Amino acid sequence: MKDETTGQEDAVQDAEACAEALESLDRISLDDVAFDDSSVDVQDEPEIEAQPDDQDTGDVEPAEDEADHEDTESEADDQPGSDTSEETILLDNLPAEDSLTRELPGLGSAPAVDETIAMGDIPLPSVPSAREAEVRHRKMSPKRRNLMVAGVVAVALVAGGAGYAAWNGYQQEQAAAVAANAHTMMSVQIGVHAAGLDCSTGSKIPVQVSGQDSDGSSVSETLYVDEHGRGIKLLPGDYTLSIAASPIAADGTIYTVPTTKTQVTVKSDGQDLSAQATFKFKVPSADTVTDDQIDAAAKYAEEGGASSAAAAKVLQQAATARRDAAVNAVSAQKAQASRDADARHKATDLYQLDIPVEWYGKVATWQNGSTLCIYLGDDANTPLVTLVAVREGESFTPDEGDTVLGAANLGNGYTVYASGPVYPYVVPQTINGRTQDPVSTYPMDTAIELVELTTGNRYTYSQIKNDLVGKDGKADGATKLETDYLAQILLPSIKAQD
Question: How far from 160 is each of 29, 166, 219, 442, CA to CA, in Å?
């Protein structure tokens, strides 16, 4: 019987401890939790148990009451089963003030135990007052108290551990994404300017790439881009870009290779690097393209710039043919220029000269000793200028109607004088019907050509007539135009005969 009574007391104490733990959860936070139990000194427990009798009777239950309660329970155990049921109180018969719910501060209405009520064989403990809870807390063994605190902390740690696990999982996902990107090829675009290049019919541009990717591996390879700068794929990293050789356009155009080298950093897919890496290709004169340039362009076209080796060979042949045609054209031009120079070159027994390029093909000459006349087309009666060599110390008088337009000292005791009509003055006067001894009258097309030749096409007939000469009959302005021009294009070429 004593063992059974002792078991019931333990059950009562356990139920009270649970109720106290529930109420304590409403008052504590994680910041208040401590495992060292610094707020209560275990050594103070004997002093609490030995407090004098003058304390409030509500603080500690008298020993006699406990003894009476134990006796009562013992007597109840000795009663028959029918008597025991009379002491069981039904929940439905409780008065309102004995309800199982009461108002807790700050929590509104919440279930709580007011007094010990027999529920089956387990009595329900009454909720202790604040003073009783404090006393019980002090009486509670350190082991039980630490277990309760450890339980609260364990709940908090479980919740915190779940949050940490979620955050750690997110961090791992992000790290995995970064690691995956570090091993993913990224498409990038660079800037390219190459006039006339269409990589769908010509070859692509070979780009030399060197540097280090995000794994720390060295990179050195040739990649190809089209005329828009697209086609490069790289792992994230830092690289140097340069042009390896010229592409070949469909018509055989070879470009001057830019010597620019640019540093770029690849970070993401679809990255536009044209602001940092732009390459401009110039088109040189086709006749200056070398075999080495064509061979280098063809090599890269075959290795990846063209759709096939056969296509690369066709482009190489086009480049060679274009270069050869240009070289031949230049050679022909030089040969013609040489022939023209021979035709323009004139010589007398005392001096030699070159007909001005602007006059070549439009004039002809006649020669008599040291006198040379340059005239318009096939009309020997329309001279532009007549050249006469005069020994130093002798005087020179031009023909009637002519004006001295300039002179060149040969340095061998002779001076060559240039004379002729002042056509910028004579022609407008003739067309206007004036009679100031014009050499002759001219058709309009002849008048225009004479004015253009003697002024080097710097002025038109209308400008000469209306603006430069005017209608005052003076020839000074027109004469200066012609003498200045002859001094520039004809007189410098007059040299003494070898």
Answer: 14, 10, 46, 113
Whose structure tokens read 């750690």?
168
Rounded CA-CA distance 353/347 in Å is 6
Tell how many helices (H) and how many strands (E) occur in the chain: 12, 21
- pTM greater than 0.70 (yes/no): no
Q: For 465-481, what is each residue's pLDDT tens digit? A: 666 554 555 567 667 87
Which backbone phi and psi does 48 adopt, to 5 degrees? -65, -40
CA dihedral over 99, 105, 109, 110, signed as positive or negative: negative
**pLDDT tens digits for 262-271?**
999 999 999 9
Q: Tens digits of per-residue pLDDT, 360-416? A: 889 999 999 999 999 998 788 889 999 999 999 899 999 888 889 999 999 999 999
Q: What is the DSSP string of 77-127?
A: HHS-HHHHHHTPPPGGG--GGG-SEEEETTTEEEE---S--EETTEEPPPP
Burial, 227: exposed, middle or buried (Cβ in 10 Å; 0-12, 13-18, 19+)? buried
Q: Rounded to the nearest 5°, which phi and psi values hold at 332?
A: -65, -40
488 and 461 in contact (C-beta within 8 Å)? no
Helix (H) / strand (E) containing 167: helix 142-182
448 vs 128: CA distance, rounded Å: 131
Q: What is the DSSP letter of 304?
A: I
Q: Degrees (nearest 5) of the Cα angle 409, 413, 417? A: 40
> What does the alpha-carbon distance between residue 335 and residue 223 come to, in Å, rounded to a whole number?
45
